[in-house]
Each structure stands twice: as C-alpha cells, then as structure tokens.
Amino acid sequence: MQVTSSHAHSTGANVVISRAVIDHFTSGSSPLQVLAATAPGVSFGSSDALGMDTAASTFYVRGFNQSQLGGMIDGIPMGGFGFHNWYGLNIDQIEIQDNIQSMSVSQGAGAVDIASGQTLGGALTFHSSDPKDKAGGRVSQSFGSYNGFRTFARVDSGILNSSGTKFYASYARTSQNLWKGYGDQRENQANFKLVQPYLQGRGKLTAIFDYSGFTQYNFLTMTKNMWLNYGQVAMLKPDYAKAVRWAADAQAGTVPTEVQGKLSADEASNIFWDGSQVQRNYLSALVNEYNILSNFKSDTVLYGHVSNGDYGGTNNFLTSPTSGVPMVLQMGHPDVRRIGFTQSFTLKLHNNDIQSGVWYQNNTFNYPTRLYEDGVDSAHSSLSGFKKGTGTTWWADSYNSNTFQFYLKDVWHIIPGMTLEGGFRSLTQTTHGGTSVDNTEALASTWGTYYAHPVSGSMTSSNAFLPHFSFDYHFLDNHEFYWDIAENMRTYDYATQTDGGTPWGGLGNANNSAQQVFNENKSKLRPERTWNYVVGYRYNSALFSGAVDFYHTDYYNRLAGITSGPVNNTYSAYLNVGRETMNGADVLGTIRPFHGLEITNSFSWNDAQYKSNAIPYNGRTISIKGKHQVFYPKFMYKANVNYTYRRASFNFNTTYSSAMAMTYTNDVKVPSYWTSSLMASYNFGKIGHALQDLKVSFSVNNLFNQNYFGGYYGAAAMSGDDNAILYQAAPREYFGTLSAEF
C-alpha cells in the first residue's frame, strides 16, 4: 500500500518498489528484506544481516507466509520459495539483487493470472532489468563486518545489429563469516539475459539463464529458554571432544555439566557439532511477447529449473558403527527437476481488456538421506565427500507432481479512471510419491536408526472455480478508492517423510504406521482455502500522500501437524484444525515538506484468530479458539526518512514488531523488538572519460544493536517452550560499497 512518490507507487492493493528504493539498502540485501522495510503489513526475519540464509528467512504478508504466497519473475512461476526448494526457488537464488528493476507485492488476494499453486493471500512479482541499448557495464565492491566481502560485475553488449539484439551477463560473489560460531556463508550467482525484438515492434523474444551456488555453515536454532539462559547459542565446532561428550549425554538423556540448571536434556541435545547447506540452482526460460494484431497479444513462457544440494548436520542420536562415536553426519541430497510453460492471450476492445491463459508444470523431487561416519578424533566433512556411492542410505523419498491452471478475466474501463475486473481460475494438482527406500530396520543394530515415518500414495487438490473481483476508481485528480474480493486454494505441500506439515510428512509412530495415518487422511483432508476482502482509499499530492486499507480473511480447512490418537498410543497426524478469521488495517502517510526530503510512517494492525475449540492433541482435545495466529505480530510500526541533497543521499528506516505467539495456545511468545538501518551515499558523477556515477555508500544494519529473534524454521508447538525452532538475529553490522558504471 505504498503511496505514489518519486520512488514507489501503488495501484489498487499493490505495492510497487522501484530500483531507487532498493538502492537505499545495503548492497546485496534480500529483496524480501527491502519489501518488509518499506511496505505496511509485510514482515521479514533472518539470522544474518543480508537475509541470505534461506533456512532462517521468515517472510509474511498480512498473516500469510512465503509458502502461502504466489510469486513470479519476468513471467516465470517461482513456485514455493522457502527453504529446500522442493518445488520452487527463492528470489535470492534467482536474480542478483543489482539486476532487479522493480518488485511488487499484492497485499490483497493475488490475481487469477499468477501461476501458483500456493497462493492463499497475496502475490509477489519481480522484474529484472533489460539489457541497455548502449554498450557498457557496472561494477561494485562491498566490505563489511565479520569479513564481509561482495563483488558484482555486469557487462551490457548494447544494441548489436539492426534488429536490436542485445544482452547482458553479470556475476556476483558474496561471502561473510558467521557472526557467531564456526564457519561462513558463500554465494556465487550469475545472470544472463538476451533480448531480441521483432521487426515493426511486434514484440520481443527474451532468453534468460540464472545460476546460484550457496554454501553455508548453519546457525543453530533454539528455544526461548536457550536464548535467555545460554547466551550465544552456536554449534560446538571446533571443539570435537566437547561435541562427542554432549552427544553421549544426549543419548543418555542427561544434561552436560556446563548447562545443568540452565537447559533441559532435550534442549541440550539440540546443540551439536555442526550443520550445513549447499544449494545449486539453474533456471532457464524463453519468454515470447508477440502482438498478433494491434489489439491482440500473445505471451508465452517456457521454463526449466534444476536444483540439487546437500542439507543436514550432526545427529546426536545415532552412532557411527566403526568408530563407536555417539554421533553421525546425516545429510539429505535433494534433486529437483521442474519444467513448465504459461500461455496467455490479451484482447483489447473499446472498453474491455479480456485475458485468458493456461499454466502447466511437472515437478520431480528426489531426496535420499544418507549417513556418514564420524571418526574417533574428527568428524566427517559437512561440505564435501558426498560422491555417489558414498554414505549409507537410511531412507529416500520421491515425488512427481503435475499442476494445471486455467484463468479468464475481463477488465472493464467503465469511465476514465474507473475499472472493474472480474475473473476466475481453475486449479488442479496431483502428486504421487512418498517413501521409495526405507532401511530403518536393517540399520537399527549398527547405526541405531529409529522410526522414519515411511509413507507412499497420491493426493489431489482441485477447484474448478476460484473467482476474483476488484474495483479501482481514480477521481478528483488526487483520490483513489478500491476494493478486492477473491477466493483462493492452496495445493498440498510435499516434503521429506520426517518433515511435518504435509500429508506425507512426520506421520504416525512405531506402533501406528505412517501409511495407516495417510490412508485415513486421504478421504478426510481438503485443501486449504481462503476468502479475502480488501477495501482501501489513497490520496496523493506533491506535499502529502496518505492511504488506509482494511482487510478481512476467512480461512477454511487450515491444516497442521498435530499429535493425535488415544493416550496409550498418541501419534503424529496431519489434520484439519478448523477455521481462522483475520481482520486488519494498514495506515500510511508520507510528507514531503521540501524538495529532497520524504518522511513516511505506517501502522499495521492484524487480528488473526483461530476458531477451533476441539483439536485432538496427546490423547485429549484442546481449544485454541480466540488465540492469535503464530509467528505474525499483531502490531507493526514503520518509519522511513529519505533525504537527497545534490549528489548526497541519506536513508533511515526503523520497524517495530509486537510480541508474537510461538505456540498455538499462545502460552509462549517471542518478545517485541525494534530493528533499524541507516545508509548514506555520495555520487561523484563522471570521473575522466571512462567512469560514470562513481558512488560510495556506507550502511549500518541493526543500528541500535537489538537482541531479538530473526526467524524460525519448523512448525509451531501446541504449547510449551520445548521447540527449538528460533533463530537469533544478527547484531549491529557495518558495510561500505564503492560502485561505478562505464
């Protein structure tokens, strides 16, 4: 709901963030982090200053997290953009931040033309910059705290021939030591984009190739008590003897001497030698925009995405059979193959824009989990030594998913400035798969393997009519009124058999098989659905811009991993935990008292309440009726100050987030916190004949050095503080960047 200014603008319930706004933040910052700092109702948390860590990244838009939002870049469906990349890819691993031209977030209900099976609330849209008409390039070099180092380089070919062919190639390398514990983060990215216009301005063909390689020693998750009583919770590496001793205590159910009276045995067992993630992603696409007639346009996108990597860490509850060391390196090796296409047609008539299209995607996902022995004196490397044929396979999962969507919409231009949009989409997805290998029983006597939740079967999500209506009216030059209504459905997630929160994951127990629970659920489960309603007003003038949004959501068939069954045989299940309703409002005001100064304040309120009063849990029923939704603040306040004087610029932004529930019963909460950043830059302009826009910038993240939780990984607990899923945010860090164009 950002208002129109020299830097950002909005249409209806959409916030649009320009390149100029992105440049107000530290070079290489996650685009999601920038969105959260500038758009009302949006929150983001991570374990590192730039938001690189996909495991810790936690992104919400008006109560919906990144697994419940649609996403597209340059017309390419992003799929689910959380950790592990089961069926999609995060924006941080697609596009180098410097190449993003603009991005927008729909704070309403998305749109029928968004190719996504995850959309329950809004949608994110990103646009990368096109190659420039003139040959040249851009370079930047950043330095930061904890040996932070980032290099970016881009070369533009300029127009190469009479047909207008042009391209760019770019590369970025980012590295930084972890701010606590052992290890570092490293990412290499490459973007290539070629544009070939058609003659007589009939359109253009765009070829895109993106690569990312991310390597990281992980930060450690914690409970709230661990944060309060243990201080800087980190992996035990490089103290191997201590790690072995703590692993032995974990298997014995005892508390290590150093933390007796501070941590429980369960909490201490969550602290181990090390963990890591290695991700490699390749995304290719052909985007064809062609004007068949002056009023009839065709848009086609063909895309393919390959992702693989190594994810995991030390398991304190297994034993290396040869060395007898009471810990093992457990690593997952995901392999994803995602291919698909979208095809849409737009017909412009006198007062109507009629659009229709289809989307098809096939996704193959394989995830073998292997065990690697730790030695008497040293552990197995967590970053290498994973060639095919090495390790011992504990279990493996395989899935194949087919998704199809059709949509039709009409935008009616009633009078100048007034539009009414009506349309619908039909969406269906069928997923086959589950456990393909399970060696739990065979390895139990040697490795100490335990119940691994094997399950296999198919699930289908389908809805033939998901309507969307919106109205937008610009009147009296500076005023705008709009509303938005839509029904959405989210297809079933799939992940590994040990990850809860999907129909296939974390089910049953050793006495009540996962397969039996899955078979029972198949006839009972229904896909999650929402009805979203938004109404808003916006005022824009040279001196002042103001906006107010009210929204309401009815959430049906909310699904969650819950402990179910009788007292003498409780087991993990994936159940419908009932309805949720959400009411909220965003208020924003921007004042421009004189040229160059812009001050923006926004306030967000969200009241998301569960409605179920009889959730089965541990052999009894629990009521969560009236409890607030987990992991999303009820109140947020944001302030942004931008000041530009000639070649100098200054930006300060701060965000307050109220306390957040981290359990369904709301008995444990994450404390409220403030986070702020500061950036100042100076552009020296042209230097000599070669360099242009030589610019130096200095920024500070977490300006006031707040100690708070930056994100989480995993599902919320029903109650209590025995759920190690929280990440501590990075402390104050400093960055400096020197950049130039040529």
UniProtKB/TrEMBL annotation:
Gene3D superfamilies found in the cross-reference section: TonB-dependent receptor, beta-barrel domain, TonB-dependent receptor, plug domain
Domain TonB-dependent receptor plug: 11-119
Pfam family, one: Plug
Principal subcellular localization: membrane
Annotated ranges, domain TonB-dependent receptor-like beta-barrel: 281-703
Membrane topology field: Multi-pass membrane protein
Keywords: Cell outer membrane, Ion transport, Iron, Iron transport, Membrane, Receptor, Signal, TonB box, Transmembrane, Transmembrane beta strand, Transport
UniProt similarity note: Belongs to the TonB-dependent receptor family.
Full protein name: TonB-dependent receptor
Taxonomic lineage: Bacteria, Pseudomonadati, Pseudomonadota, Alphaproteobacteria, Acetobacterales
